User: Fold this.
Amino acid sequence: MSVPTISINPEGLKNFALTQTETIHYQSTPDELVQDTLRLGEGVLNDSGALVIATGEFTGRSPLDKFTIKDETTEDTVNWNNFNIPMEDKYFHIIQKKIIDYLGAQKEIWVRDCYACADPRYRINIRVATEKPWSNLFANNMFLRPTEEELEGFKADWHIYAAPGLLLDPKECGTRQHNASVISFKHKTILIAGSGYTGEIKKGIFTVLNYLLPQEKNVLSMHCSANMGKDGDTAIFFGLSGTGKTTLSADPDRKLIGDDEHGWTEDGVFNFEGGCYAKLINLSEEKEPQIFRAIRPGAIVENTRFFEGTNKINFDDSSITENTRVSYPLEFIDNALEPSIGAVPKNIFFLTCDAFGVLPPISKLTPGQAMYQFISGYTAKVAGTEAGVTEPKPTFSACFGAPFLPLHPGKYAEMLGKKMQEHHVNVWQVNTGWTGGPYGTGSRLKLAYTRKMIAMVLEGKLDDVETITDPVFGVAVPKEVPGVPTEILTPRNTWQDKVAYDEKAQYLAGLFVKNFEKFAANVSEEIRAAAPKV
Ligand code: ATP
Ligand code: MN
Assistant:
C-alpha cells in the first residue's frame, strides 16, 4: 500500500501545520496500536489478550459539553435544546487551532482513514487524528475498515480530532469547562478535547448521521441494534443506554447486523458502524458468551480492574465506573453478517428498563401505541451509588436517542410511522427491567427469560396467542409464552403488595402523560389515544 500524503487539516485550513510532530503513524494495524499503547505504559493485556486501558477523568459521555456550531447551515435546521447546545463559529476556529497546535506539538500522533455506513450509497469517509494510540484503535474497531484498494485516493468527507490531554480555557474557548465535543456541519469536523472517553468519537459521527441522512437522503437513522434470522427476517431493537440493545442482539441463532446505530432505507436497514461497544458490568461467560469471547487480541477493554495480583478482569468491580466497556470489530462475533445490511424489519422491539417494575415484560403494541412509545422513549435508571437514594429515576428521551438527534423528534417519528404502516411491521415493548416489585424490592428480569420471549416472537409463536389488555398501559400482554413462567407475564401478579403496584403504575402513567404534553398538539388522535390511563 502506498501511503498517501497525510493532511490532517481539512481543506482551507492548511496553515495549521503539524510542525513538530516527529511521527505520524498512519493506518497502523491493531497489533501496532496495541504495542504502541503498551510501550507508552497506557495499557496492559488481560489474560485473554485484550488491551485494557483507562479513559481517565471521563468514563462516559459528557452531554453538557457537547456543542453544535450554530451557523447559516444549522440555525434553522437543528432543534436547539439541552442536547444540541449552540456554539459560535468563532469558537470552532479557536478550538480547532488549539487542537491542531496541540497535536502538532506531540512527539507522535495516530491518523486513520475509515468510514461509516455499510450501504455504499450512503457511505461517508472519515479521517481520525488522535493523541492516543488506543483512541485510534477504537476508531478502527468501531468504524468500517476500508480495503487497501479503497485507501488509494481516499478523500475524507469528515475529520475527527481527539485530544484527551488538551484542557480548554472556557473563557477563551466558549466552553462550559475544560473539555468539549464540538461538531461543525459546515466544516465537517468533530473536535474532541479534554476527554478520553472513546464513546465520544462514535456518538459524534452518529449525531452527524442523524442530521444528514433524514434530511438529505430520506433515510431514517435509528438508535437501535439489528439482527437477522435464518429466513432473512430482520428485527430491530430500540432502547436507551443499558436497556439491552447490545446484549439482546447478540443471539447465536441469528446473524448480527449491528449493536447500536442503523439506517432504514427504501429497501432495508444498514449498520452505520463496523464494531460493537458492549457493557461489561457483571458480565459472565455463561449469560453472554458471545460478548465474553470477543474480549481477545484487538479488543479494547475500558475502565475495569483486575483481581488482585492477576490479569483476570473482575467484571463485578464498578469502582472506576459502572460503565465499563469493551469495543471490538463486528467479526469478533461469530455470526456477524457481512456486509451489515438486512431486509426491511419484520419486528421492532422497544426495550425499556423499567426500574419501577410495572411494565409487562413483553407486550404487543398497536400502531398508535407504537408511535406514542417511540415519541416518549421511556426508561428508568436505577439510582447510582449515592447513599440513601432508592427511587428509580425515570427518563423520557424522544425516539430512544434524544442526546444524539440534531433534528426535531417529530422528523424521525414521522418517518418511522410511515415505514411501519407501509411494511406492516409488528411492534413489541420489552421490559428488561424489574419484576416482583420496584428496584430495591423486586429483581431484574432474568436475561434468559427476556431472550426466550424475544425468540418466541421471532419464531412467530406469539402471533396468535390470547392476550390480556393491561388496564393502565393498554398494551396486549400474551397470556402464555412457551418456556417462560406464566406468572411473570403480568407484573401485578409478581408484586406481593397489589395496592403498591397500582400506585406505582398510576405514578408512571402520570409521568408518561406529563411528558407527552409537549408533543400532544402535533400528533394524531390515534396516537394521543394511546396514552396510559390515569
Ligand atoms: P448502550 O446504548 O449504552 O450501548 P445497550 O442498550 O446496548 O446500551 P446493553 O449493553 O445491552 O445496553 O446493556 C444491558 C445490560 O443489562 C447488560 O449488562 C445485561 O447483562 C444486563 N441485563 C440484565 N438483565 C437483562 C435482561 N433481562 N435483558 C437485557 N439485559 C439485561
Ligand atoms: Mn450497546
